[in-house]
Specification:
mainly alpha, globular
């Protein structure tokens, strides 16, 4: 394998990233659920899973960390 073939593993799943992209647009859990055709519980699970991966305790901390890491853009 060549060095330039290496691709770092994404921290968030595609769906977790979609949830946070909507979250930074000031969407509510219900609005995110409706837009992605999933339940509000599933939205909360995606947020919780991402927070665990990041080692943070709140949604806002998760957003700040994702922005800092370049995983999210405003």
């Amino acid at each position: 394998m060549k060095d330039n073939d290496y691709k770092p593993k994404q921290l968030l799943t595609k769906r977790e990233k979609e949830v946070f992209e909507l979250l930074v647009q000031d969407k509510t859990t219900k609005e995110i659920a409706d837009e992605l055709f999933i339940s509000q519980k599933t939205v909360r699970n995606h947020i919780s899973n991402a927070m665990q991966k990041l080692g943070v305790k709140g949604r806002s901390q998760a957003v700040v960390e994702l922005l800092r890491m370049g995983e999210l853009k405003l």
